[in-house]
Amino acid sequence: MITTTGLTKVYRSGGREVTALDGVDLHVREGEVYGVIGQSGAGKSTLIRCLNLLERPTSGTVTVAGQDLTALGGGGQRANAALRAARSHIGMVFQHFNLLSSRTVQDNVELPLEILKVPRRDRARKALELLDLVGLADKAKAYPGQLSGGQKQRVGIARALAGDPKVLLSDEATSALDPETTRSILTLLRDLNQQLGLTVVLITHEMDVVKTICDSAALMKGGRIVEQGTVAELLATPGSELARELFPVGGESLAEGRTVVDVTFHGDAATRPVISELARTYNVDVSILGAAMDTLGGKQVGRMRIELPGRFEENVVPIGFLREQGLQVDVVDGAADDAPTTTPLQKEGAQ
Ligand SMILES: Nc1ncnc2c1ncn2[C@@H]1O[C@H](COP(=O)(O)OP(=O)(O)OP(=O)(O)O)[C@@H](O)[C@H]1O
């Protein structure tokens, strides 16, 4: 649905150059909620603004719904009109709502339709329909100043949907909201994604947002995407920083000469007594150092950190048994200088 190739943005100001995006290849599938996470300055805002060409990239391409946006605009009236038309199918929601305080809620939602020269009666009908969809049917005549933060963001979302977009871009839409309101806005975005088949790209610096609604995620650092994939793929990637942060499992080994492994359970494997089978089959004492269950991307996932007696080399067979059961096993500590904490054995273990 959205693809960028080699997307680069260099800002030049006062003789200085800042590379905000450094060759970003992004791939967002139709109908998914895709989260881009990263620390301040990583390039998230620049990326999302390049997706609808609010910001023109220095080089690279942006394709949305099969249309190369970078080929549009900047080339005379017809090209600019084509870019405006393409943009009307991409809605955007902002952190600080960007509502016009002198207009009623309904008039704010109608604004993009006015720009598209939709007749007054159709505009009103559409705006009221959208306000109903976001749960604000009774606030049509109110002014933004009379609304709570969450209600203002609902108006922002209704306005973003006015042009019947296929894609919704959300620029830190919940950063200015309290946790409960954040949850209700995320639920609304998820409902809209499912009801309307809307593809949602959101940027955030909060892992909880990704955890709550995203099907896929990308981690940005220094203008680059350093990891991306579906939540399940990320969880199955040994050493993935996103997986570790999405689903941390703690627990320190207190004894010497032991092997510590993180075991991730997905789907059927989560309901089988694999650890007790392991203990019985190999007659090993398994200590559980930490464990957690969570729902990620709408699916139940379990993680457990366990400790086996002996060094990694002595535990190759039991670890192989766990992998044969369809579990993902990451060796955290093999208690030897050359313990394969980040080496091919873990890659083999990726399911
Ligand atoms: N208009 C601009 N002119 C010059 N430099 C800019 C401009 N916009 C952004 N930058 C720089 O580009 C880099 C990426 O900024 P960007 O706002 O995209 O990051 P971000 O991940 O969204 O951060 P935040 O979460 O703080 O908004 C930063 O170093 C920033 O200072």
From TrEMBL:
Keyword Transferase: no
Family matches, as SMART domains: AAA, NIL
Pfam assignment, any one: ABC_tran
PROSITE patterns named among the record's database cross-references: ABC_TRANSPORTER_1, ABC_TRANSPORTER_2
Domain of life, per lineage: Bacteria
SUPFAM superfamilies hit by this protein: ACT-like (SSF55021), P-loop containing nucleoside triphosphate hydrolases (SSF52540)
Keywords linked to the UniProt accession: Amino-acid transport, ATP-binding, Cell membrane, Membrane, Nucleotide-binding, Translocase, Transport
Keyword Ubl conjugation: no
Molecular function terms, GO-annotated: ATP binding
ABC transporter domain segment(s): 2-247
Matching PANTHER family: AMINO ACID IMPORT ATP-BINDING PROTEIN (PTHR43166), METHIONINE IMPORT ATP-BINDING PROTEIN METN (PTHR43166:SF30)
Protein name, UniProt field: ATP-binding cassette domain-containing protein
Source lineage: Bacteria, Bacillati, Actinomycetota, Actinomycetes, Kitasatosporales
